[in-house]
Fold:
Amino acid sequence: MTHATKTDEVTREPVREQTRDLTGFDYNASAELFFGRSRAGKSRPKYRRFDTAAEAVRFVVEELPAAVLPGTYLLVDEARFGVDEMRHLYESAGYPLPREPEKC
Structure:
């Protein structure tokens, strides 16, 4: 696993990115989604539980507003996944749910 350091845009705290192999990811495992802070300042839930990780990944990619994405992460079997990793999981050949049709 390689590590890189950058600064979280929301908290200005150092964040360590991990590049990891996502093959074998269990899309059927239950998942918890923790939302980043909205820059618009609107109150919204800070947490949501999903029956499957696939549903959580689809929610993030297809429905979550861009303003909430910074700082949002998915917790599956005690492993934490950032937004870029969730996008990768969504685009993976192993993703089990139908994807939203691409917009022209």
The chain has two helices and six strands.
